[in-house]
Design brief:
With 429 residues, the protein is an alpha/beta fold. It is built from 18 helices and 16 strands.
């Protein structure tokens, strides 16, 4: 019995010593690990590489696809670990569907599209999407048919008489845009409404892919259209139309295209998304060096991308605006890609688009302006990516914006009251 007690006592002492030895070793290792660089896990570093290296990008044949194209052609995506493929879509609906299905993982997109898809609005299947990057500002226009030269300039009120006459003949005027809740639709609606024309009652609105606008105008299928460049300049070169107003005439430095992702893809691939943003930053800075714009046009004009004469693209990119009806100007608010805090995904822009969707009756009840904006406009991802490359952006801008009709939008104000304040709208009072 004594022997057993002694043996147990000895085993206890050994166990106690082993325990103390392990504690000591653990403390030493802890001290050692605390001095190691961040990212050290066991015997390897945690990778900073993108979770998904192979990325297919979507784009439409418009000048503002340039940041994605340049980041690809200049191997800037490759620099940040992304193996890029750029695929041209037939139209915006096809781009949306390709992103939704996972056929592409990132895309050139109208700012309104991720908002509409997140909400399942205006025929868009409900699929949450995010905007961590604005690709550009400015650079769109409203083109009218040549027969109206000298009769309509930049004032949409001059169109009202033409519209009333056409309605009496049972042939309402037809205007085209590129996607129902997209930017071109909103610029066209805002422009017509400022002239006292209800776009849902007084005229016919149709959807036409950007690259097909000029051909459809040429055969007389429409009286006007809103689209991005170079198709407005192309209509003048082909002598089938003229520019009434540019989008920057309507709203200086307005938001336009974005780089969009599915929300679930961004959640699973945060390093991938940030790598893409870093490459887009370098491409955007390169694009806003005016010395590079001739080369930009040579690249994006190729059949793979826009498939349009490079000189037609270049003029308006340099701010040389010939409206095609005798008016000319040097416009300092030409298309930009990086300047003036261009890329920050400002929450107020989402709120403005939501207010317009509400104005035009695309929602039966007021949306959750704050909630949807927070879900879609991912300022956090943008800020993290820019911090990692040491770029000091100018941050949030929640100042008021006044458009060409003199109406002021206050993102901190009553957004439902703003949506209802317009005399031309499709909301019940």
């Amino acid at each position: 019995m004594r022997m057993k007690i002694k043996q147990n006592s000895r085993q206890h002492e050994i166990s106690r010593r082993s325990f103390l030895r392990n504690i000591s070793r653990g403390a030493a290792l802890g001290a050692l690990y605390n001095g190691l660089p961040q990212g050290w896990i066991g015997t390897v570093y945690a990778s900073d590489a993108p979770e998904t290296a192979s990325i297919k990008f979507g784009m439409i044949a418009l000048t503002d696809c340039s940041p994605i194209v340049i980041a690809h052609e200049k191997k800037l995506f490759k620099k940040y670990g992304i193996d890029s493929v750029v695929m041209k879509g037939a139209n915006w609906a096809a781009i949306r569907d390709s992103l939704s299905s996972g056929d592409i993982q990132a895309t050139h997109m109208l700012i309104g599209m991720p908002i509409a898809s997140t909400m399942g609005l205006a025929g868009s299947p409900k699929k949450p999407m995010i905007i961590p990057w604005l690709l550009n500002r400015n650079g769109q226009a409203i083109t009218l048919k040549s027969e109206w030269k000298g009769k309509v300039a930049d004032d949409p009120k001059a169109l009202k008489a033409f519209g009333e006459k056409a309605r009496k003949l049972g042939e309402p005027l037809t205007f085209a845009m590129t996607f129902p809740p997209g930017t071109h639709a909103m610029w066209m609606r805002y422009y017509l409404a400022a002239g006292g024309i209800n776009p849902d009652r007084d005229i016919s609105m149709i959807v036409v892919p950007p690259a097909q606008m000029v051909a459809n105008m040429k055969i007389g299928k429409m009286d006007g259209f809103c689209v991005g460049e170079p198709w407005n300049a192309r209509s003048i070169a082909d002598k089938i139309g003229f520019t009434s107003v540019t989008s920057q005439d309507i709203w200086k430095d307005h938001p336009e295209k974005v780089c969009a992702f599915l929300g679930e893809f961004a959640d699973k691939n945060p390093k991938t998304v940030k790598a893409i943003l870093k490459a887009l930053h370098e491409a955007s800075v390169w694009l806003d060096d005016m010395n590079n714009r001739p080369e930009q046009c040579e690249i994006v004009s190729r059949a793979t991308y826009i498939n349009c004469d490079k000189e037609t693209i270049l003029g308006r990119l340099q701010g040389h605006y010939d409206y095609g009806d005798g008016r000319k100007k040097e416009d300092e608010h030409y298309m930009i890609f990086s300047k003036r805090n261009c890329n920050f995904p400002q929450p107020k822009y989402c709120k403005w688009f939501l207010s317009q969707y509400r104005r035009w009756g695309m929602m039966k009840s007021p949306p959750n302006y704050e909630g949807i904006t927070k879900q879609v406009m991912r300022t956090d991802i943008y800020e993290e990516a820019m911090k990692e490359i040491g770029y000091a952006h100018h941050g949030l801008n929640d100042e008021k914006e006044t458009l060409f009709d003199g109406v002021t939008f206050d993102p901190k104000g009553d957004l439902e009251a703003y949506a209802r304040s317009f005399p031309v709208k499709n909301l019940a009072t």
